[in-house]
Amino acid sequence: MRFRLHSLFAIGACALLPAAACAADQAPRTMALELRAEAQVAGVGIALGNVAILDTGHPGAARLAALHLGKTPRVGYVERFTRAQIAQAVRRQSDVEAIAWTGADSVAVRAQSHAVGTDALAAAAIDAVRAEYGAAHPGLEVRLAGQLAPLEVPDGRLELRARRVSGTVLNKRMTQWLDVLVDGAVYRSAVVPLAVSQQRQVYMARRALEQGAWVGPADFTVSDANVAGLAAAAVDPALQPFRLRTPLKEGQVLAAGAMLNEGKILRGDSVRIIVRNGQIGIEAGAVALAEAGPGQQLAVRPNGASETLTGRVGQAGTVIIE
Q1: Is residue 265 part of a domain?
Q2: Are residues 278 and 236 located together in one domain of the fold?
Q3: Could you tell me which residues are beta bridge partners of residue 177?
Q4: 27 in any annotated domain
């Protein structure tokens, strides 16, 4: 009885109100949307408020304006949305069921963008190389080498993040990769060509010098040179004569690795071998078949023989075979 009385009261109350008010209370309110023909969007996502003018009198207008339609297209591309697509998204993500359309039949969406200049790209790459190598290479200089075009990126929070170059040998020509992030997401990458120099005093050959030759200070001049990418030998006022592991051309920088350590034997060197059998030792001449230093094993071919022997490099360049 209580339910019937309540229902009758509701029906009677509605009868006292205008018909339009009762219809509005019983049916979902119509949402008025004016669709733009074109829209430029900043950021990585497209919202309904970017592409349409909403009825601000609707109680859910602010929430509907933020309704997500899709990802912003890449710079230079167009994403198109029709009325039907937008209506489907509205119904799926809100309680609005009816839309009163005005404006265009569809909207063309483009990314709002700006250019990241070459100065910013070069500075980020140069700073990365200096940070990685500067401490170990005093006087290091890095500059842009070659052409670099500006990058068009969507508007948003921009970050240029240099990839680590650890483990890469410092060279006169290098490339530094940059990841370009917009709103925290990688949008694209860029390669920046760089020229690297480190000037310091080095030894330079006065003339062509052969492999295995004994050389000393008189065979070199001391000059300033770019040693980026070179493990150049340090200039030493007390430089003593030494043998060359590799040949040098006139004017070539002396690398530290080209200086043989004392007692080092090169492939092709004539050596003395001592063949020991108990207390008896027999000496003979031989040719070294590899490179080895004191205490290391070395294969040799005795003079006039075809077979090879292996022994240990001793003092004064001898090879001991036991």
Answers
A1: no
A2: no
A3: 191
A4: yes
Q: Considering the chain, what is the average pLDDT of its residues? A: 85
Q: CA 299 → CA 126, 244, 292, 317, distances in Å?
A: 49, 21, 9, 13
Q: For residue 119, what are the CA distances in angstroms to 141, 143, 145, 180?
A: 17, 11, 12, 14
> In angstroms, what CA-CA distances link 280 with 90, 97, 143, 272, 322?
101, 109, 67, 16, 11
Residues of the chain where predicted confidence (pLDDT) is lower than 50: 1-28
Number of domains in the chain: 4
* Domain assignment of residue 170, given as a range: 115-197
Q: Are 53 and 80 in contact (CB under 8 A)?
A: no
The model carries a pTM of 0.60
Beta bridge pairs of residue 110 = 40
Q: Given this model, what pLDDT does residue 66 score?
A: 93
Rounded to whole angstroms, the Cα distance separating 170 from 122 reads: 18
Q: Where does residue 232 rank: exposed (0-12), middle (13-18), buried (19+ CB within 10 A)?
A: buried
Asked whether residue 107 is assigned to any structural domain, the reply reads: yes
CB distance 173 to 211 below 8 Å: no
**For residue 264, is it within any domain?**
no
Question: Which of 67, 89, 111 is the last residue before a domain boundary?
Answer: 111
Q: Of 147, 176, 197, at which residue does a domain stop?
A: 197
Token pair 């500006």 in the structure block, residue: 150
